[in-house]
Amino acid sequence: MVVDKRLADVGNFIRQQRELAQQSIRDLAKVAGVSNPYLSQIERGLRKPSAEILQQLARAMKISAESLYERAGILDPSDEPRPGVVDAVSSDERLTIEQKQTLLSVYRSFVGEEPNSAPR
Question: Per-domain residue ranges for the chain?
Answer without folding.
Answer: 5-111
